[in-house]
Amino acid sequence: MKKTIAFVSNNAWSVYNYRLPVLRHLMQQGHQVLVFAPDDAFSAKLQSEGCRFIPLVFTNKSENPFQDIRLFRQLRSLYRHWKPDFIFHFVVKPNIYGSLAAATLGIPSVAVVTGLGYAFARKNWLYWIVRYLYQYALRKVKEVWFLNNEDARVFIDQHIVAIQKVRVLPGEGVDTTYFKRQSPAHDRSGEPFLFLMSARLLKSKGIGLYADAIRLLQKKKVNARFQLMGFFENEHPDAISEAELNKWQEEGLLDYKGYQQDVRPCLEQADCFVFPSYYHEGMPRCLMEAASMELPIITSNNKGCKELVRHQYNGLLCHLHDPFDLAEQMMQMMRLSFAERQAMGRRGREWMVEKFDIRQVIQEYDALLRLAFLA
């Protein structure tokens, strides 16, 4: 029953940061794990964990059809060489061209839709092309996995995939033993209230809304500090530029902490986590991590986000695209007592442990592979 299982994604970073517990679990069972992704700083980390890393040459942001054809041929050639017994594809291009390549070789595969993303943001030419390619590519996959019900409903309602192939996961899970406070929160009354946002530096993640809400709060002379963590994606059409971020810092709006490999120390120091995204989210890992670390959260009433935060239970929800409401919810959070915020944080962690722990996601992988290998 020991098999070769492949994971295919658009970067090694996401595989390492989002799926490492799954990879470790499969290797502990004796399976060989292959990771196909463009080479980056996390390739060596995956190899040190025991994975076989195979570099890919492609960018998920390219709209060049000739590059997409090359990706399909590249994947088919690599699959033929490495002969994986089962393949998990992640994000749009691997889902489409990887699924097609696996099908031509008779290799069973799963497409994991981690979020609808930029292509589904508006019904332009890119949307129609991606929709058609998804529809064509997903015909022969074993299953299609989604991270929330709304994304699954879109694919079903638009006849992109049959409901019989759909499985909805509790996000990609969070390791609640790793994301756990090392020291109890303490009352910092009198000190500046610390808001923290951590995200990919994209406009649709709500970073501009965060900056605008801070402007509104600063006019009220609130005693608060505002931090931002994340990395630039300069090739992404929705990217925040370094010039924009520098301007916000020069205005004194926020303190940019850069990209943090280990976000736990920053989460422990914060009083509230903010994430006003209007992106087509799957199930944002940043919210899972913040909740698991017992932070009260303010996020938008957006799919993927509202599944993780219940208003006035473990955080507050704000309106989409509305810096005024975001500022109001931030004020509301500051008005809560330390004990009330602590209770929100505890409820958030309990919910993550109960519904979204990584062990539940691992069980989904085990169940599918058991059926696939016994068939």
What does this molecule look like?
By secondary structure, this protein is α/β, with parallel strands linked by helices. It has helices spanning 12-28, 43-48, 65-82, 92-104, 125-137, 149-157, 207-219, 242-250, 264-269, 285-292, 323-335, 338-356, 358-374, and strands at residues 4-8, 32-38, 52-56, 86-90, 109-113, 143-146, 166-168, 193-198, 224-229, 255-256, 272-275, 297-300, 315-318. The mean pLDDT is 94. Helix content is 43%, strand content 16%. It contains 13 helices and 13 strands. β1 (4-8), α1 and β2 form a beta-alpha-beta unit. The strands form two sheets. A seven-stranded parallel sheet has the order 3-2-1-4-5-6-7, sandwiched between helices. A six-stranded parallel sheet has the order 10-9-8-11-12-13, sandwiched between helices.
Q: Tags for this entry?
A:
375 residues; alpha/beta; 7-stranded parallel beta sheet; 6-stranded parallel beta sheet; 13 helices; globular
Summarize the SSE layout with pairings.
Elements: E1 4-8, H1 12-28, E2 32-38, H2 43-48, E3 52-56, H3 65-82, E4 86-90, H4 92-104, E5 109-113, H5 125-137, E6 143-146, H6 149-157, E7 166-168, E8 193-198, H7 207-219, E9 224-229, H8 242-250, E10 255-256, H9 264-269, E11 272-275, H10 285-292, E12 297-300, E13 315-318, H11 323-335, H12 338-356, H13 358-374
Parallel strand pairs: 1-2, 1-4, 2-3, 4-5, 5-6, 6-7, 8-9, 8-11, 9-10, 11-12, 12-13
Helix pairs in contact: 3-4, 4-5, 7-11
